[in-house]
Amino acid sequence: MTIDRTNPPALHATPGYHHVTKVQADHLIFLAGQCPLQPTGELAEGGLAGQTDQVMQNILIALEAAGAGPGDVVRTVIYVASPVREDLAAVWTQLNESPLAPAFTSASTLLGVAQLGFPGQLVEIDVTAALS
User: Fold this and answer.
1) Strand 107-112 and strand 20-24: pairing?
2) What is the mean pLDDT of the chain?
3) Which one is the CATH code of 2-131: 3.30.1330.40, 3.40.640.10, 3.40.50.2300, 3.40.190.10?
4) Which residue spans traverse the membrane (predicted)?
5) For the segment 105-120, what is each residue's pLDDT rounded down to a tens digit?
6) Domain chopping of the chain, boundaries
7) What is the 8-class DSSP label of residue 72?
8) b/e 59-93 (16+ beta carbons within 10 angstroms → b)
């Protein structure tokens, strides 16, 4: 498998992600949007930071179940239920200081949204990985 992450010189500098992720792989892995739900089905406590931590744990478990890890991630979409840019920045920082950080060096999108699927849910992350 080959993953080539690049930033074309004619595009703006990024805060860690790459504009282009080119993949040659035998298998693609698509995770359902990972929510901040604990194994019991309860929403994680601790506000935005606590929910982000639970989502990261869930992603790591799902990737491992597929035989993949954070370095195999080729695309992420991060949804934060907040119109406040500082909230989005805080989630981005928390993700990039976590064991999941290599996942966010690929093509990534960070969005502030009006609401997510579960009452009180503040964050969700969609992940695509590739394996040979």
Assistant:
1) unpaired
2) 94
3) 3.30.1330.40
4) none
5) 999 999 999 999 999 9
6) 2-131
7) G
8) bbebbeebebbbebbbbbebbbbbeeeebbebbbe
